[in-house]
Amino acid sequence: MYLDLVAGRIDAAFADSVAISDGFLKADAGKGFAFFGRDYSEEKYFGEGAGVGVRKGEEALRDAFSAAVKAIRDNGAYKAINDKYFDVDIYGG
Length: 93
What we know:
Layout: H1 2-7, H2 17-25, H3 43-46, H4 59-75, H5 77-85
């Protein structure tokens, strides 16, 4: 897709914003390209977001992941890490 954009074979691409930002726009090949339009995040089409998979029966581990994410979002650590590495909120919202 990126090669096709640079070569002019396509005029636009629709993909994950983090992948495009870090994988293309921040690279030399991405110079002169930018995001346009609105974000597409309707749950009906794209689901609730990313997740961590754990084995069935690992409810304690699942709950520990959920608690850890909540804790770093509540105490500001998530925002500090996100802002250091990404131009968008990868958590989404």
